[in-house]
TrEMBL record:
Protein name: DeoR/GlpR transcriptional regulator
Domain of life of the native organism: Bacteria
A Pfam family per the record: DeoRC
InterPro entries: Carb_Metab_HTH_regulators, DeoR-like_C, DeoR_HTH, NagB/RpiA_transferase-like, Tscrpt_reg_HTH_DeoR_CS, WH-like_DNA-bd_sf, WH_DNA-bd_sf
Provenance organism: Weissella confusa (Lactobacillus confusus)
GO MF annotations, alphabetized: DNA binding; DNA-binding transcription factor activity
Keywords of this entry: DNA-binding, Transcription, Transcription regulation
TM region(s), chain numbering: none
Domain named HTH deoR-type: residues: 3-58
Length: 255
């Protein structure tokens, strides 16, 4: 294996694992300790990895680049479906409302459209990304404080919950990782579930934006029953009748 190939393989393993011990890395690479140490020294000198006691990890800069790449990849998934859902969700607004915009790529598809809404809405969000984009479009925006969850750029935790408890929303648009008839709306993260529950309790109307890939799935933490929200999706579901028995479903492209 050539030097460049070994370096690429080491970086690929670190992108996947975060950090690896020297012993485990040697077993995975099938090279001598001296060769591995030389490769790691070269990668450290180039600023791509940093040596830690007994192992190696990506530098903070490389971790940030990897995180941004993952967010970009997520934003590109099912892009056309998200755009259909966003346009459909905008029909629920007339201008001037106080709205909550949840973190996530599907809710993020609404941002450009919100920039054209008049009178401008007052937007509250727990997304660092959404807040920045909305500010660039001169849309009035408040970002909820708290701990930033790096995988989603969403604020969570006690500070976020306390601030949300002081607010009320005309309309809220939430994302979901899973939607099913038994457990309702679900997310993999307990703290994100807590934030979403608070928003639902503080909102006059709640719409959950979910493309077809999110239905008939289960995630770790329950957010709400279907009866507490209205679903907006991109196309008709094969299992639509089971969901319609429990909540309203708005399908993009249908009047």
């Amino acid at each position: 294996m050539m030097i460049s190939e070994r370096h690429d393989k080491i970086l690929a393993l670190l992108n996947k694992r975060g950090r690896i011990s020297i012993q485990e890395l040697q077993q995975l690479m099938l090279v001598s300790v001296s060769t591995l140490r030389r490769d790691l020294d070269q990668l450290a000198e180039s600023g791509e990895v940093q040596r830690i006691h007994g192992g190696v990890e990506l530098t903070k800069q490389q971790q940030t680049l990897q995180h941004e790449a993952l967010l970009s990849q997520k934003n590109e998934m099912n892009l056309s479906a998200k755009q259909v859902i966003a346009r459909t969700a905008m029909r629920e607004l007339h201008g001037g409302e106080t709205i909550y915009l949840d973190a996530g790529s599907t809710t993020g598809a609404m941002i450009a459209l919100l920039g054209n809404l008049q009178p401008a809405p007052q937007v509250v969000t727990n997304s660092v990304h959404h807040a920045s984009q909305l500010a660039d479009l001169m849309v009035p925006v408040i970002i909820i404080g708290g701990q930033v969850k790096l995988s989603t750029n969403a604020t969570i935790g006690a500070t976020a919950a306390e601030q949300l408890g002081q607010l009320a929303f005309d309309v809220s648009f939430l994302g979901a990782d899973a939607v099913n008839t038994d457990m309702g709306i679900m997310t993999p993260d307990l703290e994100e579930a807590t934030i979403k529950k608070l928003v639902i309790n503080r909102s006059n109307k709640v719409f959950v934006l979910a493309d077809n890939s999110k239905f008939d799935r289960v995630a770790f933490a329950k957010v709400s029953d279907l009866a507490d929200i209205t679903l907006i999706t991109d196309k008709s579901l094969a299992s639509a009748s089971a969901y319609q028995a429990k909540t309203d479903i708005i399908v993009g492209g249908e009047s």
